[in-house]
Amino acid sequence: MKKNNKKRNVVADNGIPEVMINQAQNNYEQAFLQMDIEQKRGSKSIYLSPEYHERLTRIVQIIGNDKIPLFAYLNNILEHHFNVYEDAITKEFKEKYKGLF
């Protein structure tokens, strides 16, 4: 009996092919869990809910193999957010900003 050597497209419980899940995981790590050499910790403090702090810390520890500090991960998330929503934020800001004169 011959074995079928064709690659099968394994589908996870959520209906998404496993290949796509693995690719998304790799893209996520490349986008958010890399530290730019020039990134430096700022002098500002921010406050997070304990729930989000725990989640973010665990992501950095487990997925990021504890190789990236929390501030760098948050900077990457915010950079992505501003790149994606820059136009919408600018539009809303211009609509709501009223000059003094």
List the helices and strands and how they pair.
Blueprint: H1 18-32, H2 50-62, H3 70-96
Order of helices and strands: HHH
Q: Judging from the principal axes of the Cα atoms, what is the shape?
A: extended
Number of strands: 0
Number of helices: 3
Q: Could you tell me the mean pLDDT? A: 80
Cα Rg: 20 Å
Please identify the structural class as seen in this structure.
mainly alpha
Give a short account of the largest sheet: none
Instruction: Give the percentage of residues in beta strands.
Output: under 5%
Unreliable stretches (pLDDT < 50, length at least 5) are: 1-11
Distance between the termini: 85 Å
Helix content: 40-55%
Features:
101 residues; mainly alpha; extended; disordered N terminus
